[in-house]
Every structure is written in structure tokens, then in C-alpha cells.
Queue: 2 jobs
Job 1
Amino acid sequence: MINRDEASKLMTEMIKNKNLQKHGIAVEAIMRALCHFLKKKHFDLPKEEFNEEEWAIVGLLHDGDYELIEKDPTKHTLVTEQKLRELGEVSERIIQGIKAHHDGIKDSRDNYLEKSVYAADELSGLITACALVRPDKKLSSVTVESVLKKFPQKSFAAGAKREQILACEKELNIPLEEFVKIALDAMQNISGELGL
Ligand SMILES: [Fe+2]
């Protein structure tokens, strides 16, 4: 079974763009935080639902094949799936989690891991954009309020799909403000690694 460090190695083999590598690391951090948060909230669910290593790997590798798909969105996540299967035994939850973040590949999100990566992916982009418009370009200057203020501004970080972020409320039952706080804290904790 692939572990986190092997997943990290695979990610840097597949992705050469440093910003895209950092995006994977940011989503990993958010996924770990969400795994903790949701595990506490849903203590009645089987513990397999909240295997932190799996959540981390899904975050790290969700965009793994982005540079390899020749801008063909119908291939996105499928190349990563193939690479993981070639590497040997891999958790089906990881494969399905990666596929679930991309609309059009897997249309239903069947568990908390899948719902989490779907929403976390886009929120990490919005938070990064919020940092980059601060005078010091630092995550430490970003607040929950500043992210919420940018949220309805459609022209700001237009690529960060707001509807997808709102899956936090519709699918995870986490209010947007709380979701932003969890993700911002997680990213601020690794700001050095993210260079922000
Ligand atoms: Fe992503």
C-alpha cells in the first residue's frame, strides 16, 4: 500500500510546476484537518472512514496528472489512477477520492473523504489568492473575514469555484465560516512549506 512519503515522491515526479506541487501540499494539510474535525463529529462511523493517511494522499495527489493530460479534462485523474494501480496494491478509497474531486469523472461523492476533497481543492485556491493580494503576500495576514469578503466577488480568483466550496455546507454540513477557518489554520500551519 502506498504511504504518504511515496505519494509525495510520485507527486513531484508527475508535477514539475512548483506552485502546483504546493497546491497539492496545501490540500493535503486541509484534508488532514478536515479528517480530524469530521472524525470527532461523526464518532459513530467506522474508523476506516477517517484514515488520515488516506485523506492526506488524496489531497497530495488529486491533481497529480494535471501536466500529463495535455489539457484534456476528460483524462484528468485517470492518469493518476493508472499510475497508482501500476504501483501495486492501492486503497480503492484513495483512487475514488482523487476521481471524485473532478466533475465529470465521478458524478457522485459517496463518503466524507470524497466530499471533503471536492470542497477543499477550490477553497485552497481562494485562500492562496487572498494571501497574494496582501501587501506582504503572507498567509499570516489573511483572516477568515477577509476570505469571506472575497467569497462573493466573482471576478476575484474566478477559477476557485464558489459552488464547489459551498459543498462544505450542502454535503459536509460545515458552515462556510467554520470551513474557511479550518482550511486557513491548516494552511497557515505550513506557510513556510507553501512559501506564503
Ligand atoms: Fe486542485
Note: The radius of gyration is 16 Å.
Job 2
Amino acid sequence: MKPKINHDECIGDGICEEICPEVFELRDDGLAYVIEEDPDDSLFDKVEEAVEECPTSAITVEE
Ligand code: SF4
């Protein structure tokens, strides 16, 4: 599982970090970053929730 964030779409509301701080981090530049490039499968549900809850659909996950 390889989560990615499209920074052209991210509006920096930090929802992804709230849902899964193990993988996503909101930084001072107002954008969220992936801090765990290959998360353990145990985090799959939380990553998927972040994908669904992101208001701009900026997060994608490649298998
Ligand atoms: S939930 Fe989406 S828009 Fe919000 S900070 Fe995360 S990637 Fe950016």
C-alpha cells in the first residue's frame, strides 16, 4: 500500500492526520505529507478512511 497526496488538491485541513497520524502529517507550509511511504497492512482501514474523508479527494493509494 502506497498512499500519495496530490498537493495541488490538498487544502491543509488536517483531517487525514487526525484520522491516521502514523501515515499523514500536516506541516507548517499548510500541506499534508505522507510520512510512512509503505504503511503496515494493519493501518489499511485508517488510510482508507482518510481517503474517503479527504474533502478534495487529494489522497490516493496504490497497491
Ligand atoms: S484530508 Fe486531504 S485536504 Fe485535508 S490535509 Fe489531508 S490531504 Fe489535505
Note: The chain has one domain: 2-62.
